Structures are given as structure tokens and as C-alpha cells.
Amino acid sequence: MVEEAAKTLGQASLRDVSLQDLNDQKSRLDEVAYQRARHVVSEIERTDQAAAALLSNDLALFGELMKQSHQSLRDDFKVSCAEVDELVELANDSPGVYGSRMTGGGFGGCTVTLVQADAVDGLEAKIKESYSGKATFYRCTAVGGVQSFQL
Question: Global pTM?
């Protein structure tokens, strides 16, 4: 569907479409195609902003972008579900949480949450107490990431 939207807009990829361009040409797409394309275009913009936020160590902005990403996945791409939305909402309403969103293939199962180290225990306790299902937790710590080495 997103490939068809790009083609309708005269582009090889939605990577070449700005949100303004998409909104200006909304009438050329049916509502579902427009929503899916809006998710892709806005997610590309969020990804660029997220990279800049990480480079400047702006975790508050990065967390806000995570929240926006989840909203877009839920509302425009329609790949979330009630259980994941509940987990994301519980996390986002917790002290020390920068942001939370679904991750993986969609339609249930997994979220990723950026949380201050000293707030992790409290977040886990809150979710165990308040979540309507049973949650499993995997604690991860960010590391330096991929690097290039010349041999």
C-alpha cells in the first residue's frame, strides 16, 4: 500500500515525500493509503530527529519521539493492540520514563521503554501491579554501538 502511495505521488519511495507534500496531495489517495503513508513519512522524519537527539544526548526529545512513533503506529499504521497500548500508557505515565512504544512486527507482544536507571525498579513494580496481563521484562543498557575498524 505504501509503495502504491509513493507511485501515486510520483515518487519511487516515500523517503522522497515530505509531510507537507503528502498533505498537499491527500486528495489523490484513499483514506487508508493516506494514513499508512503519513505514518511512513512522519516516521522517517522522527527517525532523523531521533538520531540528532541522541547525538546531542537529548533524551527528553528522544522519548517524546518514541511516544509520537507509537501513536502513529497505533492510529495511522494500525498495527498495535489493546495490550500493547496498555503497557505503553502505563510506562509513559510513570516517573523517570522518557518514552515507550511498541516494537517488533506489530499486533501484540513487545514494547521498548527508555527509562532512567534509578526508575527501572519502580516501573517494573507498577506494571506488575497494574497491567491486566502478565508482562516479562528484559533490562538492557545502551552501549557504544556499531563501529568501523580498519584492519
Answer: 0.90
